[in-house]
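Quarterly update from the structural biology core.
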Amino acid sequence: ALAADADRIAVVNGKNIPRDEYEREVSKIKDQISAQGGDITEPEMAEIKKHVIDNLVDMELLYQASVERGIAVSQKSIDDEWAKVKSRYPDENNLKKALDDLKVTEEIIKTQIRKGLSVNTFIEQNFVEKADIPESEAKAYYDNNVEQFNVPESVRASHILIKTGPDADENKKKAARSEIEKIQAKIKAGEDFAALARENSQCPSSNKGGDLGAFTRGQMVKPFEDAAFALAKGAVSDIVETEFGYHLIKVSEKQAAAKYSFDEVKANLVKIMRDTRVKKELSDYVKGLRKKARIETF
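Predicted structure, tokenized:
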């Protein structure tokens, strides 16, 4: 019994969930967190392990439910999905190396594909297709949450920055001010703002001609924001001083505050409401399956 338990992480209604499947999923999450430069504490690791076991048990319960409902997955569907997996690799050797690294075989992947397709079909037929959101319900949500559909005022601006920094002395500030004044004179003489930004700006946006993209109020430091929002489209500011240094700002687009109409958001809103309902109903259904199931974890 002990040897058998070493090979499985759980038993769901008599069906084993292999321990190596659990370890693969845990490794995948650990790798994703490490790739983002994160460290995992012991309590977080315990939470990850619990999350993985819960997901594997839920998936097995849904797969068993799909089989009970007589959902069949064609070999062609499995082969098509397997072909997509293979197409990510330039040749058989690269594919084999990837499978070896993941400690999986073609057979294991195809079993996962079959289960995944079966569960997806089951969810589609029993939850997605039945989750109808009448337009009246979406309209009621819209009317009761109007603030969610407001579009704040925004501008798209480019800038040229000559840095001083918060600790700059008067001499450094004077030199920076002199430099930005020379650039300002070139702009007034008709030289191209983007080209001058590329040549002179000390902000990383210089490689895009100073373009900062669009932004709303509250995203930039106050003196910069005030100057940008006061400008007309196409206009260039006077010299603006912030904690970063001296700026010249050019506004390329202005978007007044507005509100999306119901017709504009209807399709997207219905989709979000349907997805939310499916998620809730599916979660409740799985809880029901868990109550009736025989589940052992090791």
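The chain has a mean pLDDT of 93.
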